Amino acid sequence: MSPEDLALFPFLNASSRYVEELDFSLTSLLTERAFHDARRRGFSRVAEAMDGEISKPASFGSDREILNELLSYPYARILVSCVGESALIRKYALSEAKAAYEVLRKMADKNPEFLLEAGEDFDITANDDGVRIHIYFSDYIRYSLSLKDISWKLVNRRLENGFVTIHRDEFARLLQEAIRKKIEHSLPIPNIPDEIQEQCASYVADLKQQYELKRKDMGETDFGEVDFNIFPPCINKAITDVKSGVNLAHSMRFALVSFLLNIGMKADDVVQLFNISPDFSEEKTRYQVEHIAGNEYKTPACATMITYGNCVGKDKTCEKINHPLGYYQRKVFFKRKDEEALAGLSRTEADQTEAGQSVSDENSKPDNV
Ligand code: SF4
């Protein structure tokens, strides 16, 4: 692959190796003036992802531009990790993958070898017969399972000697899924040192503000950190069942997974929640969770939950809402109000103590001072 290709697909292993060989220190990327454009582009990657579309350069004018494009990716990963929002991580991974797909789709007929080479990066076994691509069936299943359209179902495909025949642009679409998963699973970067966080602070603050505004515009709620103590009765019951090894009905399993993803739990953490029962299959559970996450499905409303027998009995809060997410949103709202009231109370107490202190200090002054 040429350096231009690597810059367009910076999440490939070959691109990471190329950057490693260039031998730049992370400190120089974060601090040196020479890398200002790379940092700026890293910031744009994340900002553009919030709108669902990351632009890719049509061409590169110089080696410097290639380098900036390549280095902007690790910088963007640091920024996304510092913002620390699961929903943003999902959006970012999806936008990077979609942008890559647009490039792959355009090069599908001109350069099918590149597609196969990119596929190797994801351990995909495939070959091109000059017109179409034959992909090994388990690789096909791995990346097509999260795709909604019925045409992706294996029964609707030609399967010969273990290989599924697909169009080149369809192969590019599977690569999009592979890229999305790879990026999503590798974020956030854990334990970013304080020093690095400080060096990125102004970009991170800017992104947090933009993210908040976007979320408000779209009527999305910031649920904050996941709080298991304020889940609705139906979700609590489902979790208890999972933990005691009871198999959930398909509709309840869907409701539980979509609920947890919608309040911001990471797909990996949702998968681990099911890692209790003796017949737990990580691969199968991951497929299901990622299918729901990838398609951004919404949790069913209470009316649907009742129809499927998944409403286990309402409590007082249930009487005021018509959606399990509405239940959680209401609880979060009141929890925050309580926290604010408590903070206000302790501030008042602190003020009073201070005032009391100064009064007693006054009173304790010796007369001769
Ligand atoms: S009323 Fe809605 S939120 Fe409450 S238990 Fe039933 S389905 Fe869940």
Q: What does this entry show, briefly?
A:
This protein is mainly α and 369 residues long.
Can you offer a commentary on this structure?
- It is built from 17 helices and four strands.
- Mean pLDDT is 87; it is low at 358-369.
- It folds into two domains: 3-209, Transcription Elongation Factor S-II, Chain A; 228-324, DNA Cyclobutane Dipyrimidine Photolyase, subunit A, domain 3 (Orthogonal Bundle), CATH 1.10.579.
- A four-stranded antiparallel beta sheet has the order 1-2-4-3.
- By secondary structure, the chain is mainly alpha-helical.
- Helix content is 62%, strand content 4%.
- It is flat.
- The chain has helices at residues 3-8, 13-22, 26-31, 36-50, 63-83, 86-107, 112-121, 137-144, 168-185, 194-199, 201-217, 233-243, 250-262, 267-273, 282-294, 302-307, 324-364, and strands spanning 126-128, 133-136, 159-160, 163-166.
- The site of iron/sulfur cluster has 11 residues, from helix 12, helix 16 and helix 17.
- Heterodimer of a small subunit (PriS) and a large subunit (PriL).
- It comes from Methanolapillus africanus.
- One of its GO terms (biological process) is DNA replication, synthesis of primer.
- Residues 225-318 form the DNA primase large subunit C-terminal domain.
- Keywords: 4Fe-4S, DNA replication, Iron, Iron-sulfur, Metal-binding, Primosome.
